[in-house]
Amino acid sequence: MEQWLQSLESRLTSVEEEKHKLILINIDIKEQLRNKEKKVLELEYCLETTKTKLEREVEALIRHKEQSVKDKRYLEKQLEMAQKEAERQAEEGRRLHKEAVKLSYFNEELTEEVRRWKPVSYTHLTLPTICSV
Predict the structure, then answer these.
(1) What is the pTM for the complete model shown?
(2) Residue 125 pLDDT
(3) Is the per-residue pLDDT at 26 higher than 70?
(4) Residue-wise DSSP of 37-48
(5) CA distances from 86 to 61, 71, 78 (A)
């Protein structure tokens, strides 16, 4: 019986040692779990912060795109107006060129007419007036 008691005590000691090891393992696992939970919280915070930053960047990009579209429309209108003005000025240039050509022909005709003129003496008109004085 004593042997049986010793065997039982030995097994009890062994069970106590195992129990102690399991308690230490349990404590270690709980500590690891707390560390993991802490890491998860840190990652969730980081994720939320990154999400917020990305949302702001997306909003800024949307605003930038909207402004770019407005700028594009404005520039297209300015280009259209500039093209119309260029067409108007080109038409005015063509009109002025035609007018210049007409004036050139007129000038040539006038010059030719002036060349055909003969000098006239006014002596017969002025001499009687001088003599009567």
Answers:
(1) 0.49
(2) 62
(3) yes
(4) HHHHHHHHHHHH
(5) 36, 22, 12
**How does pLDDT run across 28-87, given as a tens digit for each residue?**
999 999 999 999 999 999 999 999 999 999 999 999 999 999 999 999 999 999 999 999
Q: What is the helix (H) or strand (E) element at residue 22, kind and residue range?
A: helix 2-116
121 three-state secondary structure: coil
Question: What is residue 2's predicted lDDT score, i.e. its pLDDT?
Answer: 79
Six-digit token string for 62: 């949307």
Contacts of residue 26, Cβ cutoff 8 Å, sequence gap at least 6: none
Alpha carbons 92 and 94: distance in angstroms, whole number: 5
As given in the structure block, the two tokens for residue 54 are 């990305």
Residue 105's SS3 state is helix
The residue with tokens 């709980």 is 30
Q: What are phi and psi of 117, to 5 degrees?
A: -65, 145
Joined together, the tokens standing for residue 76 give: 């297209």
